[in-house]
Predict the structure of Uridylate kinase.
Amino acid sequence: FDKARVTVIFVLGGPGAGKGTQCEKLVQDYGFAHFSAGDLLRAEQNRPGSTFGAMISEYIREGKIVPMEVTIKLLENAMRDALLHPPSFPEGSTLAESWKDGKGLFLIDGFPRKMDQAIKFDESVCESSFVLFFSTTEEVMLERLMERSKTSGREDDNRESIVKRFRTFVETSMPVVDYYRQRGKVVEIEASPPVNVVYANVRVAIDQRVG
Ligand code: UP5
Ligand code: MG
């Protein structure tokens, strides 16, 4: 992707930290296209005719990272499609206009979460402007995910999978956050407070860096 035409913000944080919740709000208020790597993988898993369905399902239940080729391809396709057919946004989304000039604004949620993905995406797709990193405790995340499990239907919202997801996050995904932190790219947001308090801090970070 032409760096002048796309702005990419990576949204990272542990399982249940609130990445998806905060991204939804940013989509409404600013006019970002939001792509959750996990959502794209779940859609691919359920797509009739997909050759990856069983593999993805197995990885997600085990809390492991799906081989990067699959995830990067899904993200690239989604981004390309959004540039060709810009999403529509509510009246007043402050940055929505830029899509009309052929510019794309992307929130990439839950990716990259392994070093190989980070390096490959930066090299072959696009470098991110910065990383929004939501940090909170496992206690908070566990409580949120157990509550969500009552209605989410996600096959990884059970205690056994959640513990595995936490382990992968610490061992495999935190090194990615640290890698970007060393490059001065990480904006860390305390994610334990109520949604709107977290969001107020997110807005400050976005307003300072995008627009
Ligand atoms: N909630 C949110 N914010 C709250 C707040 N401030 N106060 C109180 N409650 C709050 O939120 C979780 C729940 O908490 C919701 O019920 C919400 O209302 C509440 P959500 O916004 O959904 O959190 P999020 O961080 O998005 O949690 P999610 O479960 O989606 O994170 P994961 O990172 O675990 O899941 P993801 O979908 O990104 O990935 C799933 C799996 O896909 C991975 O484990 C992996 O196996 C695979 N994957 C890959 O292989 N490669 C990738 O690149 C990406 C994923
Ligand atoms: Mg999510």
